Amino acid sequence: MEKIILRGHKGIGGTAEGEALVSQNALSYIFDVGGIWDTPMSAKVTNKIEMPDWYGEDLAGKVLVFPTGRGGIFSSAMLMGLARRGLGPKAMINIKTHPVFAYASIVLDLPTVDELDKNPLEVIDNGDWVKVDAERGIVEVTKRES
Amino acid sequence: MRLTKDEEKMLSGGYGEATRRAMEILVTMGDYAGAQRMVPVSWADLSTFSGIGGGHGDSPDNDLYKFMKELDDLCDREGVRFRCPTTLADAGTPESNARLTRMGAQLISPAGASSPHDIFPLPLFGQYVTPGATNINTYCNSMIGARGNNEGPIGVRMAAITGRTPQYGYLLNENRLAKTHVEVRVAPKNYIEWAVLGFYISKRLSRHYWDVPVLTGIDPVAVTSDDIMSLCASMNNPGSITHFLIEGLSPESRTLEQALGGRKPKERFTVGPKEMEEVYDTYPPTGNKPEIVTLRFPLTVQRLYEVAGLFEGKKVHKDVSFSVDLTLAAKLVAEGSGLKKRLEAAGVLVAEKQGQVMWRGQMIDPWVDAKRAGVRTMVTDSLKDCNAISQQEIDMVLLPSLERIVEVAVTGKVEGG
Fold it and tell me: What string of pLDDT tens digits covers the 146 residues of chain A?
């Protein structure tokens, strides 16, 4: 199976692996994810307008690949609330991590990396198996068999 | 990162465990974002996260609340005092207010997170700040030339405890230069239109918000700071533009050349009537009757008088719930001048806490409860409302002026549906 390595600087948190979910859009946990008003709380994407490529997807347990975060400083509260319920992502890979997300990752010890030597939005596809070693700033992508 | 002796002492626990934890978080953030050093903070504003009920998503059942509470407990035991001027608004519980003020925060209002600027002095050019509300942070960056990243509730709290913030992002000169040239070919007539302009730009740059936009084509004489505050709010919604420049208005953008640092922009685009229309078309009038009508962009003193004028001799329609949010200053003026009573007599609900509306005899926060409460249609002046609430499959209608919104509240009908 084809493997691709992406390298960057030291990230936040340790290591994690899981299935990739890739969006070309900036993510807001507060405006895009059903957690705030859904009963029970969920990590399903509910914002059709701003997050069309993830609409209906469940972000729980995935390695999330997206350019950056966007408006809504309470994204950190939602991300932390979901994480405690086992609905957080396994890891996050960004072009540049939004500070609100980065602080949540620090507190959660959630593996998070950015500014890699290849564009993760071009290299990683939905369903690829991704290992994130944030300590060393290395992302190993095993391409899904087509 | 290179730390000073005092910062090293914080990090090694010399000032106690709470300060050590706060500094550790800031150092981790600084290392991640490529900061070389910490800088002293001139103002930290805890307005948007203070305790239970102090904001959306802020409940005793979430981890951020628990994390903050644990840290506050520890600060209390260790007698920690905030190390920089710190303000607090929109606090949730009397206990958390009391605790944070004991630590040195100035409680400037029990409500009204987005408008500490009318009570607390704004920072000055070149100062490092960590405001809580994103609109204030952007205003500080863009209109004053103070320097702040969008730190969010965690980064702001750690800054208050240590009096420091890592120097990365907009705290560095090179990142404050414009990379995107936006030619504005409309003349926004009111605060809603300014918000629409900001919304379009914010959305367009949401995937790379750090490519700072410089706006040209704006007549510096015709703009008010209320307009710009509205622009700053929507620059952070739906995207996250923490810093932008306006040619001839921003201190770091007396000219386009200065804004760009003598370089060519990476990208250039135009915002004209067609682009503005695109935003309105996202949240158009529907055939449904307006159930909740609201002015959620907190009314400034100026807009408070405008709304009171528009209600002269009129009343809110019996089938409509109409509520307004006020800035801190407007709240004081409304109470002192009798305008609040006049509005209430006309059937207007003046919200005590920001973001609340009356629905079937109960106060609800539509960001969280609109769907659960059975709301179907809401008319608003706020694109942030549209963005946040439309995901609950509620019909959100954005109207372009105070006059139109008051008319809907009075007649109970939306034209064009």
Answer: 899 999 999 999 999 999 999 999 999 988 888 766 666 778 999 888 899 999 999 999 999 999 999 977 778 888 888 888 889 999 999 999 999 999 999 999 999 999 999 999 999 999 999 999 999 999 999 999 87
B328 and B269 in a single domain? The answer is no
Report how many domains make up chain B. Answer: 3
Task: Give the residue among B356, B332, B351, B326 at the shortest CA–CA distance from B53.
Answer: B356
Q: Which residues 374-393 of chain B have a CB within 8 Å of chain A? A: 384, 387-388, 390-392
Instruction: State how far the Cα of B260 lies from the Cα of B212, in Å rounded to an integer.
Output: 9
The residue in chain B having the minimum alpha-carbon distance to the alpha carbon of residue A76 is B64
User: Are residue B268 and residue B323 in the same domain, yes or no?
Assistant: no
Rounded Cα gap, residues A128 and A105, in angstroms = 22
Q: Chain B closest CA to A63's CA: distance in Å?
A: 19
CATH architecture of A3-142: 3-Layer(bba) Sandwich (3.50)
Identify whether the C-beta of residue B142 lies closer than 8 Å to the C-beta of residue B234. no
Helix (H) or strand (E) holding B377, with range, is strand B377-380
The whole model's pTM is what?
0.94
Q: Which two tokens stand for residue B9?
A: 């002492």
B202 touches chain A (CB under 8 A): yes
Distance CA B258, CA A42 (A): 47
Nearest to A102 among B29, B59, B65 (CB): B29
- Kindly state the tokens that stand for B299: 């009314």
Nearest chain B residue (CA) to A80: B63
Nearest to B152 among A12, A31, A73 (CB): A73
Q: Where exactly are the structural domains of chain A?
A: 3-142
